[in-house]
């Protein structure tokens, strides 16, 4: 049985194949959901956050509604409208003021000599639908430092 010989693809073909990534499916966010998401984002960020009118499907029925400035996302299910949480990537000086104090105190315990003022942090909040508030907020720093602040 002959064995097929594999040859490298021509440069143009290889580059075209690498660039073909599936386009994220866009979903129009209806007014009822948008209103709910605005309320959730205000609670999460401590200020009004303007969201885009169109979200992107990230997994199954889970949609991410991004903020206009690209810093924030709210996650919800398209069929049920259930909000699962929110996330943001921000400089530490832009996070919730009360949480900022708690987080900086915890970081000082880890390393009293390091300053974190300009460091970016990933902020993830899990939303409790029954209580209509965030259960906890996670702050993830470079170097795999994970801090939790309960609401």
Short description:
The protein is α+β, with helices and mostly antiparallel strands and 151 residues long. The chain has helices at 11-19, 31-45, 97-110, and strands spanning 26-28, 54-59, 62-66, 72-77, 83-91, 120-128, 133-141, 145-150.
Verbal overview:
By secondary structure, the protein is α+β, with helices and mostly antiparallel strands. The chain has 3 helices and 8 strands; from the N terminus they run H-E-H-E-E-E-E-H-E-E-E. It has an 8-stranded antiparallel beta sheet with strand order 1-2-3-4-5-6-7-8, covered by helices on one side. Strand 2 and strand 3 form a beta hairpin. The longest helix has 15 residues. The relative contact order is 0.12. The mean pLDDT is 84.
State the helix count.
3
Helices and strands: which structural class? Answer: alpha+beta
In sequence order, what are the helices and strands, one letter per element?
HEHEEEEHEEE
Could you list the spans in which at least 5 consecutive residues all have pLDDT below 50? none
What is the helix fraction of residues, given as a range? 25-40%
Radius of gyration: 21 Å
Outline type: elongated
Overall mean pLDDT stands at: 84
Largest sheet: 8 strands, antiparallel
Share of β-strand residues? 35-45%
List the helices and strands and how they pair.
Layout: H1 11-19, E1 26-28, H2 31-45, E2 54-59, E3 62-66, E4 72-77, E5 83-91, H3 97-110, E6 120-128, E7 133-141, E8 145-150
Antiparallel strand pairs: 1-2, 2-3, 3-4, 4-5, 5-6, 6-7, 7-8
